[in-house]
C-alpha cells in the first residue's frame, strides 16, 4: 500500500453514541468533514440521547485491543484519537495495543463526565489513564473539570489557574496539553496550549447555543485529523477550532433532540 496517499487514515478508540452527536459517531463525521478516512474501535456501548445517558455497557478489554490490533495489522494509521475508555481494564488494553505504534500521533480526550452529568469513566481508571495512556499522548485535550480531576485539584475558575493546570498536566507524560476553557464564566471561551515549554492562548467568543453535544469529541477528532495531514500542532489547533466554531454556529440548521443538540459537522459541505 502506498504511504504517500493524499487521504490520511485516522482511528478513533471511543464509545458509541446512538443519537449520533458524540463518541464514535461524531468522530467518524469529523474525520470525513476534515478530509480523512475514519476507522473506529469501540470501547463501550451507551444508551443516550441529547438529554442524557441512561446506561453504559463496557466491552471486553481484550476485544477492544483486538479491534485495534486488526486495524494496525492491515491499514496505515496516520493518527489515533482516544475518547471514552470506560474502565481500568480497557485503559490498560488500549495502552498495550498502542505501545508498539508510538510514532503515530495520538490525541487523548479524557472523557469522564457526560454533558448531563453522568460519569463515563470508572474512578479506578483514572490512575491507569495517567500511568499507562498519558505518556503515549502527542496531545491531551481536557476541559476544566477533566483537568481538575486528572490533577486532583479544584476546577479552575479563571485563566491564571487554567494555564498553571495545563503546565502541570504536561508532567503526567503527554507531549502537549490543550486545556479547553468552555466552562469559564463570561463572554470569552479561551483555550490554552502548552507544548515544549511554550504557552499559547487561543481566544474565542462564546457562541450562545444549546447545541454543544459532542463538541469535545469533535474537537479532539479534528485535531487528530489535522495532525494526520502533517500540520504543525499550533496550526492544527487553529484549523480544528475554526472548523468547530463553524459547526457550532451552524448547528441550528439541524433539528435533533430536545436537549443539548449536536453540532453541524458538515456545515462547510452541505448546501441548500
Question: Overview of this structure, please?
Answer:
Helix 3 runs parallel beside helix 4 (123-133). This protein is an alpha/beta fold and 272 residues long. It is built from eight helices and nine strands. It has one domain (9-253): 3-Layer(aba) Sandwich (UDP-N-acetylmuramoyl-L-alanine:D-glutamate ligase). The longest helix has 17 residues, at 233-249. The strands form two sheets. It has a six-stranded mixed beta sheet. The protein has a three-stranded antiparallel beta sheet with strand order 7-8-9, with helices on one face. The protein has helices at 23-33, 61-74, 88-98, 123-133, 144-151, 159-169, 215-228, 233-249, and strands at 9-16, 37-49, 52-58, 79-82, 105-108, 139-140, 176-180, 191-195, 198-202. Strand 5, helix 4 and strand 6 form a beta-alpha-beta unit.
Question: Summary?
Answer:
The chain is of the alpha/beta class and 272 residues long. The chain has a single domain, classed as Ribokinase (UDP-N-acetylmuramoyl-L-alanine:D-glutamate ligase, 3-Layer(aba) Sandwich), CATH 3.40.1190. Helix content is 36%, strand content 19%.
